Amino acid sequence: MAELRALQTTLERDGARDAAYDIPYATIHVGRLSGGRALNIVPDRAELEFELRYLAADDPERLRADIAAAAERARGGGPEIALSRIAAYP
Question: Are the C-beta atoms of 41 and 51 separated by less than 8 Å?
Fold first, then answer.
C-alpha cells in the first residue's frame, strides 16, 4: 500500500493533467485490504484491492508496469505478489 501511495504522489506531482476534472490527474485508490482468519494467527495470504483511474493522456500499460514495479519493490524478496486485472474501461 505504501508503494501505491508513493506512485500516487508521483502522478499527482508529475503526471498528465486535465482541468475538466475536479481531481485533474490519475488516481490510485486502495479500497480494501484483508487477510487472516484471527487476530493471533499470522495470515498465509493477504489481499489488497485498488483502483487506477487514469486520464486519456496517460498510457495505461505504462501505469500498469509502474504498479508491477511497485509491487516488486514492496515484495523485496519476500512472498509472491500477484497482480490481477478485474476490469478495464476506456
Answer: no
